[in-house]
Amino acid sequence: MNINLSGKTTNPIDIPKPKSKSISIRMSKSSSPSPSPSDYKSVILRGAPYKNIDTVKYLISSCIPKISLDKANEIVEIANKNNRSVVIMCGHDEACLYCSRLIENGLIVDLE
User: Fold this and answer.
1) Does any domain span residue 107?
2) Looking at residue 30, what is its pLDDT?
3) Contact 46/108 with Cβ under 8 angstroms?
4) Which helix (H) or strand (E) holds 2?
5) N or C: which end of the chain has fewer CB within 10 A?
6) Which CATH number characterizes residue 68's domain?
7) Number of other CB atoms surrounding residue 72 within 10 Å
C-alpha cells in the first residue's frame, strides 16, 4: 500500500514485464554475398623440373576437386611452357586452402 501526495492510499499496480523472445535469423547459402572481383585470388603453378608430370596432374586434380585430369594436364603444359600457369581463381579463403594443399604435396605455387 502506497500513500500519494493527496494523502490517499493506493495499491501499487503490477505492470507485467515484457517477455524476452529470442529471434534467430538464418541465411541460406544462396543469400550470402558473393565475393567481389577484388576478393578473388589466383593460385599460380610455377614451372619447375618436376620428375613425373603425371603425378603433378594427379596432385592438382586431387587437391582441387573442381579440376579434372584433362584440365590439370592443360595447366601443367602451360606451366612448363610459360614457367607459370593459373590453376584456379576463387575466393581468398578457398585459394589459401588450395595453395596450402598443393604446397604440402611438394608443388611450387603462389597466391596472387
Assistant:
1) yes
2) 44
3) yes
4) strand 2-3
5) N
6) 3.30.1390.10
7) 23
Q: What is the pTM (predicted TM-score) of this model?
A: 0.65
10-residue mean pLDDT series, the chain (112 residues): 58 53 46 63 87 90 94 93 94 94 93 90
Return all residues near 7 (Cβ < 8 A) that are at least 6 apart. Answer: none
Burial of 17 (0-12, 13-18, 19+ CB in 10 A): exposed
Residue closest to 97 by CA, chosen among 41, 48, 47 = 41
pLDDT recorded at residue 3: 58
DSSP letter (8 states) at residue 42: E
93 found inside a domain: yes
